[in-house]
Amino acid sequence: MKVGLFIPCYINQLYPQVGIATLELLEKLGVDVYYPKNQTCCGQPLGNSGYEEDSKGACRLFVENFKSYDYIVGPSGSCIYHVKKHFDILEQTQDVINVRNNAYELCEFIVKILGRTDLGASFPHKVGLHKSCHGLRGLKLGSCSEVMGDHYSTEEDLLNNVKGLELMSLNRKDECCGFGGTFSVFEEAISTKMGKDRINDHIDSNVEVITGADHSCLMHLEGLINRNKQPLKVMHIAEILNSQTQV
Length: 247
Hints:
The structure is a single chain. The protein is of the alpha/beta class. The protein has 2 domains: 2-113, Rossmann fold (3-Layer(aba) Sandwich); 126-241, Rossmann fold. Helices cover 47% and strands 11% of the residues. It has 13 helices and 8 strands. The chain has a 4-stranded parallel sheet with strand order 2-1-3-4, sandwiched between helices. The longest helix is centred in the last third of the chain and has 17 residues, at 188-204. The chain starts with a strand and ends in a 6-residue tail after the last helix. It comes from Winogradskyella litoriviva.
């Protein structure tokens, strides 16, 4: 299979180590990875702010960059969700349909397409998993706590197979962190309070490292942690799954 690696703009600019870890992880799993150099933003910030018409240029460019790949894989649940669900604003050509159907968040791709859960990683730390809203409720990467039925979680399946890692149980396992993209700008006070609540849950649960599949949420939490000088480290799940050594 030919896989197009999609690295969201904020990861490219602020967290390049996440993009590198994603690439290295996929290569370790034997995937033939390509990085379209002309890729830009998927258009999510404009779409989320109500400017869908203005986002069409970015959406069309995304399709043009990734239309020739069997799968599109990215380390961001929210961006992948945008591609899959909000590219309906474009004319539904076969290229657009294929890109929407073949776009996968990293953990989902590893578990559902590659059929792997044990990646040979080692990370001897107490870890708290932040389940981002787009991944959990949009991409269905896991079951929601308010829904009756069997519990499942793509991210937990992977983390539970990391040697030495202790996945800590949180009091509110799938509560929103308050980031919400531009919501954190327009509703700063509410966003901050929600983020602090999530961080305190991790601290109360003796977590050392917060992880997740969406670094936009992790960026929000990390900013609050650093400002308040709290004893927590934040890492994208790709970094942990690609890890062989201690932090």
